[in-house]
Each structure stands twice: as structure tokens, then as C-alpha cells.
Amino acid sequence: MQIEVYSDLICPWCYLGYARLAAAKQARPTADITVRWLPFELNPSMPVEGRDRREYMLERFGDLSKFDSAQQQLTQLGESLGLQFNFEAIARSPNTRRAHMLLEKASPSLQTPLLDRLFRAYFTEGKDIGDQATLISLAEEVGLSHRDAEQTLSDADCVQQVAYLEQQARDWQISGVPTFIFDRRFAFSGAQPLDVFFRAIDACQTQADMKEASR
């Protein structure tokens, strides 16, 4: 089965959703699952160079203390899944378009490792994942060549493909992330509990088995 996931790399709930999907896959080893990560920019108007995170958050939301409890909850949930959120280390709010371009052009075998590395770079290490040199370095860490990463980041066709996929999300009335789409039969949004993932995977597997049996 194919699971398509719309997410953004600056979304902490997307990071949690990624980890819960990974746990669900591990718990269903006999299910033949492929995952494709799709772009959804939460801040598409962010300048290419990004902005100082504190300044941006204050401008957009005002009092930042209201996020304290949410960040504490995310930190605790992350720890239960082996993730480390280090919000204090994040100095920049990046534009994520170029990161999505790298993910879109990555081979199926490298897309998930690259996504994992980008999430960890941003949420744990506080790296600026909108910076071109940083993106190239992170891509190299998971096996992309420097040349391929550099070419992808200047590929006009890749820009258009990311824009097309984001328009597809709007056409499908997806307004929040993460959104998980299972064989284009079932879908849900949010970093749901594992039981929700299990039900969707099992339902898809049952339908596939019934289809195979009827041949």
C-alpha cells in the first residue's frame, strides 16, 4: 500500500506524526508499505532567507509564553517516541520551499532518511534548514551528492512540481498537516495515536487481500 503524507518540516506535530507512522510500520512488518512525503508550506510567504524566529513569532502571535505548555507537551510526547525537541536552539524561522524541493527529487530510498535528517536538524540541533549550504550538507549526510543537491535547489521544474503538489493539497481540501492518505481510500490529519494508524493500515490490507482473493 502507498501512504502519502503532506507535511512541513517546521511543524512539530508533523515530526511526531512521522515517528508514529514509523512505529506503526514497524508493528506491521508483513504489510507492504511505501511512503511518499509531499510538500505543504505553512509559511509560503516567508522570505527566502527566513527570519529571526523570536521576532517573527512575536509579530505573528504576540505573547510567546502561551506556547510554553504546548512546547512542554511536545517535548514529553517526543521523548516517548525517541525524539528530542530543543525549541530554545531554534534561532531562525526558515522558508521550507528548498527543503521540500530536495525531498521531492530524492529517490524513494533516500526520501525518508532525508526527511528524518531535516526534522532532527531543525528541532533538535536548531539548524537553519532554509539555508542552501546547510541543506546541501544535510543531503550529503544521507547519501545525495553535492552536485545533485545543488542542481535540485536551482531546478525551476522542481519549483513548479512543489507548487503543483501544494495546489493538489488545496484541491483535496487539505488545510492542516500532517495529513496521511492511505491508498487514496482513507485519510486523517494530525499526529494521531498508534491505534488510528493501525486501523487505517489494517483496513487497506484487508481490502488488498480481498481484491487478490477475488482474482
Rg, nearest Å? 18 Å
The CATH topology name reads Glutaredoxin
* Overall mean pLDDT: 96
The best one-word shape is globular
Low-confidence stretches: none
Main sheet record: 4 strands, mixed
Helix content: 40-55%
- How many independent structural domains? 1
The CATH class is identified as: Alpha Beta
Strand content: 5-15%
Question: What is the β-strand count?
Answer: 6
Structure description:
The protein has 215 residues and is α+β, with helices and mostly antiparallel strands. It has one domain (2-213): Glutaredoxin. Helices cover 54% and strands 11% of the residues. The protein is built from 9 helices and 6 strands, in the order E-H-E-E-H-H-E-H-H-H-H-H-E-E-H. It has helices at 12-27, 53-61, 68-80, 97-105, 108-123, 132-141, 146-153, 156-171, 194-213, and strands at 2-7, 34-39, 51-52, 92-93, 179-182, 186-189. The protein has a 4-stranded mixed β-sheet. Strands 3-4 form a two-stranded antiparallel sheet. Helix 1 (12-27) links the parallel strand 1 (2-7) and strand 2 (34-39). Helix 1 (12-27) packs across helix 9. The chain is globular, with a radius of gyration of 18 Å.
List keywords for this structure.
alpha+beta; 215 residues; two-stranded antiparallel ribbon; 4-stranded mixed beta sheet
Would you spell out the secondary-structure blueprint of this structure?
Layout: E1 2-7, H1 12-27, E2 34-39, E3 51-52, H2 53-61, H3 68-80, E4 92-93, H4 97-105, H5 108-123, H6 132-141, H7 146-153, H8 156-171, E5 179-182, E6 186-189, H9 194-213
